[in-house]
Design a protein that fits this description.
Elements (H helix, E strand, L loop, with lengths): L2 E10 L1 H10 L6 E11 L3 H4 L3 E7 L4 E9 L4 E10 H10 L1 E3 L2 H8 L7 E16 L4 E10 L2 E10 L2 H14 L10 H6 L3
Antiparallel strand pairs: 1-5, 1-9, 2-3, 2-7, 3-4, 4-5, 6-7, 7-8, 8-9
Length: 192
């Protein structure tokens, strides 16, 4: 079953990121480093504004393959398969793999037939996460790719209407200009 992800994203400067890390340190309950490897087939997913990602979190025995299908600029439908890390590492080593049947079927529902995909981008992210409330989950990312580093704040929410004022309030408090972050895959691909 797909999950619906609702989130606000904003790029940060290093100084803004450091201020948020310091001020929200009591909120963060997760501190992880993860590798995201992105895959496509001849640009077909990118052409349809979709993304396919393998995520491996340091120290975990399983990772995930996630297909992201945007529903709007703030809402994404996600199909995820959990697999052992050694299998995912083999996929990343080979820089290609055959899609699990569930993901093939999700794409076929959108009129796209793909079986094998190839790696297009790779990035590593240091992520801090924690709940601000039952509705808002704050995420701060420091991502490294192709010799570049960027900083981002994400706020995952159950309700866009309730979450937006909280998100905008944080931006205002820290004098952060609203700069909607493009997806990590787009940022990584733009620096190839």
């Amino acid at each position: 079953m797909p999950e619906i992800e609702k989130e606000f994203k904003n790029l940060l400067t290093k100084e803004q990121y450091d201020a948020l890390v310091n001020d929200y340190k009591e909120v963060f309950t997760k501190d992880v480093t993860q590798t995201n490897s992105y895959y496509d087939y001849e640009g077909l997913l990118q052409e349809h504004k979709m993304a396919l990602r393998i995520r491996i979190v340091e120290g975990k025995e399983t990772g995930e393959i996630t297909l992201k299908i945007p529903q709007s600029s703030l809402v994404v439908l996600e199909y995820t398969e959990v697999l052992p890390v050694d299998i995912l590492n083999a996929y990343n080593h080979d820089k290609q793999f055959t899609l699990p049947t569930t993901l093939q079927e999700a794409l076929e529902d959108k009129g796209i037939t793909i079986q094998t995909v190839n790696q297009t981008a790779l990035l590593t992210t240091h992520r801090l996460e924690g709940a601000l409330s039952e509705n808002e989950w704050l995420v701060l990312d420091e991502s490294h790719y192709n010799g570049k580093v960027d900083f981002e704040m994400e706020m995952e929410v159950r309700s866009l209407e309730l979450g937006e004022p909280v998100f905008l309030g944080i931006l205002a408090k820290y004098n952060i200009l609203r700069r909607q972050a493009e997806s990590k895959i787009k940022r990584a691909l733009s620096t190839r």
